[in-house]
Amino acid sequence: MSNLDFTICCTVTFFSKKRRTPPNLNNGKYCPHLVIKGSEQLLGVNFIDGEDVIFDKLIGANALPENEAVDDSFLQEGTEFLIMEGSTIVGEGLVKEFFNMNQWEKIIMGYKNVCVNCRISLS
Question: What is the CB-side half-sphere exposure of residue 24 using CA atoms within 13 A?
C-alpha cells in the first residue's frame, strides 16, 4: 500500500464482458491504473476499501495512489476516469471526493476518515 497523504473517494463500475470474476476492492491487492478520460495520463492506484463488486453496477470505493511522484492536480471532484488492467479497459469511474490529509490530521483522526458521498469508512 501507499504511504501518500491523499485518498481518492470514487464511484466505479466494472464491465462484465471484460473480466471473468469481479475484483476484490477490500484486500489491498487490486492495483489497476486509472486513465483520466480525454487524456493519456495514467495513475497507478491501490483500492483499499469498497462495496462488493457487481458487474455493470455503480458502487463506492476508495483508492490510494501507488506512486509518490504523482501529479495530483488533475484529480478533482467530478473527474471521470477509465480503469485499466494492462491495455484492457475493465471499468470506469468518477471522483466524488479527494482527501489530502496532513500528518497532524492523521494523528487527530487516528488514521480514520469517512467519505461522506460514498459512505465508506477508511481505516
Answer: 4
User: Looking at the predicted structure, is the pLDDT value of residue 103 above 50?
Assistant: no
Gyration radius (Cα) of the chain, Å: 14
How far apart CA 92 and CA 38 sit, in angstroms, is 13
pTM: 0.78
Question: Which of 52, 59, 56 lies closest to 9, judged by CA?
Answer: 59
Distance CA 66, CA 105 (A): 21
DSSP structure string for 22-43: ---SSSS----EEEETTS--EE
DSSP state of 53: P
Taking residues 83-102, report their average pLDDT. Answer: 88
Please provide the distance, in angstroms rounded to a whole number, between the alpha carbons at the two ends of the chain.
Answer: 13
Could you give the residue ranges of the DSSP H alpha helices within the chain? 103-109
